[in-house]
């Protein structure tokens, strides 16, 4: 077994990127980045969203030409004209958003662009055998004949890895590879990566999650605002040190969360049955009760009814049957405006399509859904001055960093966009808050802020329903945790008295047979 | 009723379907590569005119055939340049080509022969009996060829990739632009053949606007056929049969509104694309570009 910290002493680093500078009009995306990756190691590249990780990889793959800096691959100067050449030099990319074709088979996806034989005819049988053998060799269990669209996300990712290996890559770059995986799938991915490393492969693991750095990497390079701020041997560093390097100041990784004092129910769903967009049953008799003064976390793997649940509670989708009560009103099937009037606020999971109008200024985004509020309008007239003043105040209180209230939402970073939505929704002082993926794609600094806001809302007696695919977020914030699987709640746990493993098993559908009595973990 | 379901009805169906098959196979290739093609009508018109003009000057319909294909390929190159290289709007480009397809032949008719409505009579492509010309079997053979190319060749896999997910295709080094150009130009060649079929196969002259919407019907056939070659063939035969039936009904003086029969396939197409009958499944990358800019 190759020991990661001691690669062949004579071997040059697989990748050396020294003093990389890449400027775009108005932005310096990479401002002097050094990254040295040794053969046979798993090297984490840690940085917040927008720190310059993707730009750096695009520079490496020849999609961008660096303005300054030196790139060496295996000790030889390298300036690739495009991904093709980078692949030829043994680099392989596993994209965050898979570059795969759903309608193709596994084999077709793997061989695409390098179909092997030189004849006109496509020999599928031979290709399937080759791909099957390769999958076997690396322990990447996947049926080469399966249609990609039929595979779960974790398997699709294996197809991407398999493709990189098929193309002859010895150095794999994985861009935020755990974003869409269940905890169990993450473990399987780690196992695959370890196996690859033992086989002499090198891995660059791009992430913004500290937990993953500790779990998988041998060394870690941290970048902040386009600059390398440090490279550490993972075993010799700590999460707080890495967080501080990454953010540039001390970060409170765990939210201060005094015990909750739940009050009366504020949002109740009874036996909800909802059909999904493709006509499939999405919720099959779901019950939940959200109380004032608590954060109720709903965890589960994407696609188990989360979207439909949120949309139903927000009034965007009508349930086939079942009831929704908000305070003492029956609000089943009412539209979003009625729900907002009744005291519901909603942080949507898709801030670009649902949360904001990107080409509107911040003021008008603050106004969205609030046109009836007396503070903003008189009769049919919008009070521009008041709107401007309130927007300024919200920007200050919620730390939305933008040049002016007239800036278009599109120009803001993801974190600032999210803070703007939260500002708008909390300004309404709701009774119940639906927070769907409130920190998806948001940097660490903003995550900390959002989490603090949610806890503050809880402490002010509001009910907060938190739906997230990020198990850490659920565990950190929730007072109670419900596990959503196959459109039903399959487990209820009291926070702090349940392990990740237990939740992970439930999220994967295990323990479903115990249904009937709600399983409360000890 | 014996008269009705006759050998004549079958041959008439083939006669009406053949030009649709050419244009639809072209449209299918183009759309499978991810470029919307509402310009088939224009390609057909340009092809029809050039075929008549080529036959007139070279005095052989085979030269006309080549001229028709070449002219439509030129029009298709313009379409590709606009849609692929300049990333222009594919609907606007197609509309412009269609308008040019009406206008340029009309203009040239006037300039060359001084006749506003149509070209002089030219020699026709040879027939194979039963009122069918040599292009009819060519059209029928074309379908399995397109099927083979799309599903059983490396090029076909790449064409599909370019049409399904151009960024993914580009990420594995496929030159999406090149494949798209090739497919758009091939669609010009095929639609041009369809046009030549009209002017020097079925008739023996070019008349103004003689495609009469067949290019659009071909698009409908591609959609109806769910972007598969044999499905599309079925749709063109259905449309051709409706056309043949309409003529038959008129000829026999039956008490059925012939226009209604003629319109039925299109109503059916509308129903099909609403998704009531089955899910319409177009290439996922239709109209999308390989790089975001």
From TrEMBL, chain A:
It comes from the Bacteria. Residues 15-250, 267-511 form the ABC transporter domain. It is found in: Cell membrane. Coiled coil: none annotated. Keywords: ATP-binding, Cell membrane, Membrane, Nucleotide-binding, Repeat, Sugar transport, Translocase, Transport. GO terms for molecular function: ATP binding; ATP hydrolysis activity. The keyword Cytoplasm does not apply. It is a peripheral membrane protein. InterPro entries: AAA+_ATPase (IPR003593), ABC_carbohydrate_import_ATPase (IPR050107), ABC_transporter-like_ATP-bd (IPR003439), ABC_transporter-like_CS (IPR017871), P-loop_NTPase (IPR027417). GO terms for cellular component: plasma membrane. The keyword Ribosomal protein does not apply. It holds the Pfam family ABC_tran. PROSITE patterns: ABC_TRANSPORTER_1, ABC_TRANSPORTER_2. This is ABC transporter domain-containing protein. The lineage of its organism: Bacteria, Pseudomonadati, Thermomicrobiota, Thermomicrobia, Thermomicrobiales.
């Amino acid at each position: 077994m190759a020991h990661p910290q001691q690669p062949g002493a004579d071997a040059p680093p697989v990748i050396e990127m020294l003093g990389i500078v890449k400027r775009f009009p108005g932005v310096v995306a990479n401002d002097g980045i050094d990254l040295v990756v040794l053969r046979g190691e798993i090297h984490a590249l840690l940085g917040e969203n927008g720190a310059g990780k993707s730009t750096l990889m695009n520079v490496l793959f020849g999609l961008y030409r660096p303005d300054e800096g030196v790139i060496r691959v295996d000790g030889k100067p390298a300036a690739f004209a495009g991904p093709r050449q980078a692949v030829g030099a043994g680099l392989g990319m596993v994209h965050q958003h898979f570059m795969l074709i759903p309608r193709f088979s596994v084999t077709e996806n793997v061989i695409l662009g390098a179909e092997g034989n030189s004849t006109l005819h496509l020999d599928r049988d031979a290709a399937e055998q080759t791909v099957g053998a390769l999958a076997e060799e690396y322990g990447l269990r996947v049926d080469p004949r399966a249609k990609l669209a039929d595979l779960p996300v974790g398997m699709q990712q294996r197809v991407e890895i398999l493709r990189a290996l098929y193309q002859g890559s010895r150095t794999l770059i994985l861009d935020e590879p755990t974003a869409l995986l269940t905890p169990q799938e993450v473990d399987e991915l780690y196992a695959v990566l370890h196996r690859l490393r033992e086989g002499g492969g090198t891995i660059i693991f791009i992430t913004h999650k500290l937990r993953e750095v500790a779990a998988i990497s041998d060394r870690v390079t941290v970048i902040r605002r386009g600059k390398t701020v440090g490279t550490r041997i993972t075993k010799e560093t700590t999460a707080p040190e890495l967080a501080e390097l990454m953010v540039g100041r001390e970060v409170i990784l765990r939210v201060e969360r005094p015990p909750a004092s739940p009050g009366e129910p504020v949002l109740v769903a009874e036996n909800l049955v909802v059909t999904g967009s493709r006509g499939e049953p999405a919720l099959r008799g779901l019950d939940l009760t959200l109380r004032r003064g608590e954060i109720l976390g709903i965890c589960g793997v994407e696609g188990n009814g989360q979207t439909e649940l949120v949309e139903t509670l927000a009034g965007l989708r009508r349930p086939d049957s079942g009831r929704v009560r908000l305070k003492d009103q029956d609000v089943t099937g009412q539209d979003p405006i009625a729900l907002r009037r009744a005291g519901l606020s909603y942080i949507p999971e898709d801030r670009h399509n649902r949360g904001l109008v990107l080409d509107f200024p911040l003021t008008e985004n603050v106004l969205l859904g609030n046109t009836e509020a007396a503070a903003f309008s008189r009769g049919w007239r919008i009070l521009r001055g008041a709107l401007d003043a309130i927007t300024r105040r919200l920007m200050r209180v919620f730390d939305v960093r933008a040049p002016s209230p007239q800036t278009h939402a599109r120009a803001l970073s993801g974190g600032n966009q999210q803070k703007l939505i939260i500002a708008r929704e909390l300004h309404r002082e709701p009774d119940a808050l639906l927070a769907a993926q409130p920190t998806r794609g948001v940097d660490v600094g903003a995550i900390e802020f959002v989490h603090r806001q949610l806890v503050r809302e809880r402490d002010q007696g509001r009910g907060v329903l938190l739906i997230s695919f990020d198990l850490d977020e659920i565990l950190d914030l929730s007072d109670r945790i419900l596990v959503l699987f196959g459109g039903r709640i399959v487990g209820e746990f009291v926070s702090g008295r349940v392990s990740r493993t237990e939740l992970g098993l439930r999220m994967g559908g295990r323990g479903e047979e115990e249904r009937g009595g709600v399983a409360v973990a000890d | 009723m014996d008269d009705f379901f006759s050998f004549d009805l079958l041959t008439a169906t083939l006669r009406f379907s053949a030009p649709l098959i050419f244009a639809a196979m072209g449209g299918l290739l183009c759309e499978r590569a991810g470029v919307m093609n509402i310009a088939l009508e224009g390609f057909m018109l340009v092809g029809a005119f050039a075929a008549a003009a080529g036959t007139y000057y070279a005095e052989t319909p085979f030269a006309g055939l080549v001229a028709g294909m070449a002219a439509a390929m030129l029009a298709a190159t313009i379409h590709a340049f606009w849609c692929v290289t300049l990333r222009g709007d594919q609907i606007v480009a197609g509309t412009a080509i269609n308008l040019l397809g009406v206008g340029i032949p009309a203009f040239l008719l006037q300039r060359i022969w001084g006749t506003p409505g149509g070209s002089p009579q030219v020699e026709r492509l040879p027939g194979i009996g039963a009122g069918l010309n040599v292009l009819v079997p060519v059209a029928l053979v074309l379908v399995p060829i397109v099927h083979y190319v799309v599903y059983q060749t490396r090029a076909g896999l790449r064409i599909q990739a370019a049409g399904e997910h151009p960024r993914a295709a580009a990420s594995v080094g496929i030159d999406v632009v090149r494949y798209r150009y090739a497919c758009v130009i091939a669609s010009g060649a095929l639609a041009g053949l369809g046009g030549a079929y009209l002017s020097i196969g079925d008739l023996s002259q070019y008349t103004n606007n003689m495609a009469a919407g067949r290019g659009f019907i071909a698009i409908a056939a591609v959609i109806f056929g769910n972007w598969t070659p044999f499905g599309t063939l079925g749709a063109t035969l259905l449309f051709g049969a409706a056309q043949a039936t309409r003529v038959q009904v008129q000829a026999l003086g039956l008490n059925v509104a012939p226009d209604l029969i003629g319109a039925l396939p299109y109503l059916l197409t509308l129903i099909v694309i609403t998704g009531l009958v089955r899910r319409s499944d177009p290439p996922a990358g239709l109209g999308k570009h390989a790089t975001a800019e």
